[in-house]
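User: My instructor asked us to take a sequence, write out its structure as tokens, and then describe one feature of it. I'm not sure where to start. Here is the sequence I was given:
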Amino acid sequence: MENKNNKLNFTRLIGIIIGSTIGSGIYTTAGDMAASGAHSASMLIGWLVCGIGMFGLMMCFYGLNNLRPELSNGIYSYAKEGFGDFVGFCSAWGYWFASIMANVSIILLVLASLGYFFPAFGQGNNLFAIICASILQWMITGLVIRGVREAALVNVITTICKLLPIALFLIVVVFFRHFHLSIFLQNFMGDGSVSFVDQLRGTNSATVWSFLGVESVVVISGSAEKKSDVGKSAIVGFLSILVIYILVCVLSFGVMPAEEMATLESPQLAGILASVIGPVGSTLVTAGLIISLLGSMLSWSIINAECAYEAAEAGAFFKAFARSNKKGAPQFSAIVCALIIQATLIIILFNESTYTALYTMSITMVMFPYAFSTIYYAKLSFGKNPYRNADSLGRGISRVIAVVGVVYSFWMLYCSSWYLLLPAAILYAAGLLVYIPGRKEQERKIFDKSYEIAIAAGILLLALLAVYFIANGTIVLV
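Assistant: Let's start with the prediction itself. The structure tokens for your sequence are:
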């Protein structure tokens, strides 16, 4: 990426983090929480946990960027430095596949949303929808190949457009007084059918999905115009997103009872706004959702290609992934990502996987790279290291942030069910088909340390268990 014209300035970095993070979640989070049994109290505490945890996670990345600015390969670099080449590869592979699955889920929801206006699209997984999805994906891939900087400029524009329906919702509910405290306080703790802890766990998937991509500015830190902009843009983007999400959820729970909200079809915000201003509300929100998702597709397509490109430059993936064109764009990586998405779309056509199934898999895959990064930051914060003088946060604050990041990473894993974690092992096991030839290409030992062999064996064992449970119907991927 030597072409300076393709470097990203502060504004475009914020555009990418907001564009990749604010997607379908802003339109579905309140309804998804309600559907999981959450009520006002668990929603508020869920956002409190998420806000503190995600801020800790974000600040871990910010701290790592300060301490180790030379590690421009983001999540992969942190795991590799902390735990060796194989764990670094697993982190890069897991994050890469998580971003690809996120992109596929977004594509499905784009087409399902188009079904609101054009019934031929159905739920986004019929033959006509898959053909249109394929065309759309290759068009966006072409845009990414033209250069990260050009694609990022388009992303800034779509980010502005996607916020307009949200602004309308906030204005209508707040200024026209459609928020009712009595509704917000109704069944504040729930009716007892779902325990408060389970309600709180139920909010986890919705909040994590809402913030998936918040670390994207670190992933593409190698394309930043100024290294100092990476941390600042991450914090500004995170705080902006958090405020927007909390406002939308709190107001939604004050417009419609949780039990009624739980019955709404996705995107639930359309039904909430429709209850206030009529059918035009559904139309506006659905149109906004489509624009939002198109922007997210673009952001995630950039991240898909950049993640593989940066991993290849660092020696984790095949050297071919590090090829770029005259514009400095990661052309080979972008094409491979598009081919994987194309293959996934074809599979979806035959087994009718849903948007929810794919985004759940994406969340599960990304939790491990998050955990590796936070543990590495804790390792630096608590241990003796030569980078401490570069820590602008201070030793005490750094340690607090590290603890928050690690605890939240394990909280996310705790909230995931075993039947979600096991299928992820299949995708991690598939990574060995890339890791082993890649090591041979570099004429290096496959595993440097004995614990890496143990980790690989554990992944294979879990993958076999997952295949067994899927085959006998215990785990159903729909």
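For the description part of your assignment, you could build on this observation: The mean pLDDT is 83. Try explaining in your own words what that tells you about the chain.
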